[in-house]
Fold this sequence. Notes:
The protein is built from five helices and eleven strands. The protein is α+β, with helices and mostly antiparallel strands. It has two domains: 95 residues, Pseudouridine synthase I, catalytic domain, N-terminal subdomain (Alpha-Beta Plaits); 146 residues, Pseudouridine synthase I, catalytic domain, C-terminal subdomain (Alpha-Beta Plaits), CATH 3.30.70.660.
Amino acid sequence: MKKFNYIINIQFLGFRYSGWQKQPNAKTVQEMIDKTFFCIFEHHNFKTLGASRTDSKVSANQFPFQLLINESLDTEKLLTNLEKNLPPDIRVLSVTTADPSFSVISQAKTKQYQYVFCFGKIPHSFCAPFMVYFKGDLDIEKMKEGAGLFTGTYNFKNYCYKPNERTQLTRTVTKSRIIKNTVYQSNFFPEDSWIFEIEGPGFLRHQIRLMMGALVSVGTGKLSIDDLKKSLEDTTSVDSNYIVPSSGLILNKVDFS
């Protein structure tokens, strides 16, 4: 039977979900999406595929997934039905028809992530779903310098959680910087917060959280800028094993152009 392919962009707060991908005994975004489709279609003859797996508690500003189904759908009606049935922490942004051969997994060109964090005075507890608080003071200027070092093509073995012999460790980072947070604002946010923004074709397991952990270590003085350079030049030189919490990580956008 002919399969119809639809690309659906959603936005979600990941704090109460164990990532995108369905897994046993855990609440995930894909599970919630599939339950919503069953409610709309009243059958299970469809398949959903996400552009990224995402870790537990990771959020997304723009997360594309594809719906494969054996029937032609009215995209406007589907968008309306999704808006009516999805929980408030998952919002549908768009529904479009795609070529049957299009894949959100293999045809994504770049992914941009943002990691929101603060330090110093303990923030309001309501900040927990959106940003991570690091105790003590951080040298933010050193961290900015360190973030710039990640731009380029490197063997990121020191920034991959439990790689195996088949893991492709050489990856390219097209943008890596720390900027002041002017994007996510609320009256209960601290006066100053920051974003580690990183972009590339694809990332290894926990790569961004390990990179952020190394930058925090630079900010506290546990690692030097030279140590960070060595971790990218010599995969046995520095053990960068500090994985920061996932709740501050946001998949900001996926580009297919």
